[in-house]
Amino acid sequence: GEYEFAIRETKTREVIDDVVTGRSELGVLYLNEFNRKAMEKIFRANSLSFHHLIDCGVYVYLWMGHPLAQKASIRLEELAEYPCLSFEQGDDSSFYLSEELLSTSEYPRIIKCCDRATVLNLMVGLNAYTLCSGIICEELNIGDYIAIPYASDEHNPAGAMEIGYVTRRNSILSPAGTRYIE
C-alpha cells in the first residue's frame, strides 16, 4: 500500500516540538541525571508522555586511529586533552542540557556541531570524541569508529542513560509507529 514515512534526526527541542504539533507521532530521546528534571518539566508542560525503552551505560565514541582507541575503558581525565563534540541545541538553556551526558563544566574543550557528518570528520581530523549510548549501527559506520565504555568514578559520574520515546499524552500509536518502536 501507499505510505508517507519520515525519520528525522534533529535537535532535542525540535523533536519535542514536532511531537507537540503532530508533525511527528513520536520522538526518541534520552534522560540522565543532568537533564531529567528539566526534560520531565517540559514533558508535563507540553502534555507529553515518556515511554521507557532501555537503560544503557555511557560510551566514548571515537575514531579507530585515536590514541585511546585500544583501551578497554576511558576515564574523564584521559579525555582532557581532546576536544569533545556535541550537537548544537540552540539558545534555550533548558534544552542545551539535553545533549550533555556529563555536567557541562566537565568539558574543558568542546566543539558544537549541527550534523553527524561533521562530527565524524572532526573525530578523525582532531582526534575528537563524543559520548553516546554505545548503540551503533555497524553497517552504517563501516568499522572506522569505536565505542569504548566510559569509566565513571565518584568525582565524574556519568550515570545511566534511559532511552525512550515521547508521544502526546493519551495518544495511541499507529501500526507504523508500533512497528518502529518494536
Write a structural description.
- The chain is of the alpha/beta class.
- The chain has seven helices and nine strands.
- The chain has helices spanning 12-21, 36-45, 76-79, 93-96, 116-126, 138-141, 175-181; strands at 27-31, 48-56, 59-63, 74-75, 84-87, 110-113, 129-132, 145-151, 161-168.
- The strands form three sheets. It has a four-stranded mixed sheet with strand order 4-8-3-7. A three-stranded antiparallel sheet has the order 1-9-2, covered by helices on one side.
- Helix 4 (93-96) links the parallel strand 5 (84-87) and strand 6 (110-113).
- The longest helix is centred in the middle third of the chain and has 11 residues, at 116-126.
- It is globular and about 50 Å long.
- It starts with 11 loop residues before the first helix and ends with a helix.
- The relative contact order is 0.27.
- The mean pLDDT is 83.
Q: Low-confidence segments, ≥5 residues, pLDDT <50?
A: none
| Portion in strands | 25-35%
Number of strands: 9
Characterize the biggest β-sheet.
4 strands, mixed
Q: What integer value in Å does the Rg equal?
A: 17 Å
Overall form: globular
Our measurement of the CA-to-CA distance between the termini, rounded to an integer number of angstroms, reads 21 Å
Broad structural category = alpha/beta
Query: What number is the mean pLDDT?
Result: 83
Task: Count the DSSP helices.
Answer: 7
The strand line-up of the biggest sheet is 4-8-3-7
- Succession of helices and strands: HEHEEEHEHEHEHEEH
Tell me roughly what share of residues is in helical segments.
25-40%
